[in-house]
Amino acid sequence: MPTYTVHEPPLRKNESVASPERFVFVRDGFHFWAFLLPPLWFVLRRLWLALIIYVVASIALDFALSRAHVPASWRMLVDVLIAILIGFEAASIQRWTLQRRKWKTLGFVVAEDGELAERRFFGAWTQRAATPSGTPPVESTPLYAAPVRRGPPSGSDVIGLFPEPGTSR
User: Fold this and answer.
1) Would 164 be classed as within a structural domain?
2) Angstrom distance (rounded) from CA 146 to CA 112
3) How far apart are CA 138 and CA 65, in angstroms?
4) Residue 101: its pLDDT value, please?
5) Residue 107: what pLDDT?
């Protein structure tokens, strides 16, 4: 199931709280359109610095490979591998750009799609805002028990399938 990160924009001049309509949900995972058409994907997401870095790096790499007399099939393979890398790292590039623009990361949401992620996040967000701030959070009991040691450790304690210290094999 996909994971989404939620980002809050910086406040505008006459705002005391950021408008929830401006929040951005970034899906983790492989982005097919970023793989297929990286420059267009960067333009549509307004990732200008990432676009410039991608174009400059691609031109420099293609130039270096052609000057090294690398066959065209290998240059195309390198371009496809870079496109795959962009497809996998597209969400990280988008989060990096938002962080550079002073957006705050509010949290993570696990949901099947973006609409459900928004519903889950805003449902939990409004519930948190509705609870009085003076009320301490209710601590839940852990789902697992901590291991219990019976007595102090001795010098002959052995971990794993090793023989007892000091005994013969």
Assistant:
1) no
2) 33
3) 60
4) 92
5) 87
Residue 109 tokens, joined: 């949401």
Residue 115 domain flag: yes
Report, as ranges of residue numbers, the positions in the chain whose pLDDT lies below 70.
132-169
The answer to whether residue 159 sits within a structural domain is no
Q: Determine the pLDDT at residue 138.
A: 56
Strand order in the sheet with 3-8: 24-27, 3-8, 104-110
Burial 28-63 (b: 16+ CB within 10 A, else e): beebeebbeebeebbeebebeebbeebeeebeeeee
Joined together, the tokens standing for residue 103 give: 């957006």
Instruction: Tally the domains of the chain.
Output: 1
**Residue 165, pLDDT score:** 61
List the domain range (segments joined by +) for residue 121: 3-130
The pLDDT, as a whole number, for residue 65 is 94
pTM for the structure as a whole: 0.69
**Assigned token pair, 157:** 């304690």
